[in-house]
Amino acid sequence: MDTTGRPNPLFRNLSAKIAAIPMIVTALVVFVGGTVWTVIYSFTSSKLLPRKLFEWTDLFNIGDWSLSVPTGIVWKSFVGLQQYERLWGTNRWIVSIENLLIYGLCSLVLSFVIGFILAALLDQKIRFENTFRTIILYPFALSFIVTGLVWQWLLNPDFGIQSVIRGMGWVGFTFDPLYNASIVIYGVLIAGLWQGTGLIMVLMLAGLRGIDQEIWKAARVDGIPAWKTYLFIVIPMMRPVFITTLVIIASGIVRIYDLIVAQTSGGPGISSEVPAKYVYDYMFQGQNLGQGFAASTMMLLAVAIVIIPWAYLEFGSRKRG
């Protein structure tokens, strides 16, 4: 009880809070602890796990049991910012960042545009709406590995789209983006849009269905064209949906890995490399944890740049309201 006689808010839903303790501890140890561990080791020259990063001192001994605490750092394991300097001086990393920017910008714009157009069409109460919605959303149920393999086959010049169209008489037709180093990232983009646009459409459709029908009636009475209603009235009202969709797309873009591996394995050469594949290759194939952790820390920073503004806009505005 507080001074006013009301129950202390700290003890409200006490059983639920107690039940949440294991999840909270797991999140702190696994996610927060793992993140801190990764950032710390990104400043080391570790090829494998460092054998000794801290100097340990026994705090007490009881029989066969002892408690040791870190009392100092073995500085020879630290290389400061050298891993980051090496990272940004590596051509493979620069190519992966360029590919991520191209893929991310195109995916962001096209997902929003295509998803919103599809949602607007379905919002017209068309016949067989459920069927069309299911067909468009179905690719999202597939894994990126399956999607990548499907589109690797479709874009194969020997028996894919190019072969089919040439068989119809257009013998000069060429469409082999996965085998052209200058446009390979756009071939990956096609597969990514095919899989992810359905989810964006569903989110947009939910936002459109949340618009009060009286707004549409008022717009029709005032003689406002449908495109102006969408552009100047509906879209501004869907701001929360757009922000949430932006975060979902952006976080997926930063983490793209399996689609690249399934379609191109980073080739031709390194022309379709992405940061997530760079991290995996250096950590598990190149056995260079320090370099891999430096790259993963940069990816973490990119995700934070997206998540923190979203959290501020989403929760800060509610608090101010």
Automatic annotation (TrEMBL):
- For the keyword Ion transport, the answer is no
Q: Where in the cell is it found?
A: Cell membrane
UniProt entry tagged with the keyword Protein transport: no
Q: How does it sit in the membrane?
A: Multi-pass membrane protein
The record's annotation in Pfam families points to: BPD_transp_1
Residue intervals of the ABC transmembrane type-1 domain: 97-312
Q: What is the name of this protein?
A: Carbohydrate ABC transporter permease
